[in-house]
Amino acid sequence: MKALFFAGGTALLSILACSAPSAAADPLVLADVRWIAEPVGRNTAAAIALAAFMADPEEVLLITPSDHLIGTPDIYDATIASARQLAEAGYLVTIGLRPAYPETGYGYIHHDGNDVIRFVEKPDAANAVRMLESGDYLWNSGIFCSKASVMLDELKQYAPEIYEASKLAAEEQVRSGKISLATMEAIPSNSIDYAVMEKCAADGGSLPVRMVPLGGRLVGPRRMGRRVAGGRAQRTGQRSARRRAARGRPQHARARHQPAGERGRPGQRGHRRNA
User: Fold this and answer.
1) Disulfide check for 42: which of 11, 46, 76, 272 has CB 3.0–4.6 Å away?
2) What would the CATH number be for the domain defined by 4-274?
3) pLDDT at res. 237
């Protein structure tokens, strides 16, 4: 890994910059950390585009939400290594999480092996149970991997307005060290899921999306920890979902925490991304 990009609000990045250890104090810390301060959030497509424009075109980007809790680092490392191999071959790669219970607050990935068939919106309780039992669906983790050039090519094809406006913002960042409010506001606000991933998967062209499943105990927001900490919690969640499905009642407890305007998925908190 050559560089670490943080894209987020000015206040958040100020906190991170003050609390992050320096490379001199810790040799394991990267010396090349690049901060992209967004004066206003424009969702994940813009944040990813900015990082991609500022990276080497052939550099592989690992794009992650900022608040994942990784319960099995060894499995996570192996999964990312597999994703990188696919990314180096020119694919867009998404990471799927094996569902522990029939969650209605997250998006799902319908897959056949490593091939993504489609991305699925948040299901109702009955469909969540059906997808869990089928074994053909994974939670959409919101973790993506690709070469910077590949991501930019797909943005240019499927979201040209975001591509062009983000290019101007990245050039301004390089030139002046910051992005003005007006320049950032000119970037259309959209998630990378809607702007690129869904369209690329549905298109079935020369660059399909590939999926790598992630096993292990947990990758997701900290609030999920209580749900998957033990088998009893998982079984309780499944029984509860089945009862709701039988009564035709939706599960609101978890879905209500998801922000509006972007697909729900483990670890999602607005537009902030680390690339």
Assistant:
1) 46
2) 3.90.550.10
3) 45
Mean pLDDT of the chain: 76
**What does the pLDDT average to over 103-127?**
91
Give residue 71's pLDDT band: very low, low, confident or very high (50, 70, 90).
Answer: confident
pLDDT of residue 261: 38
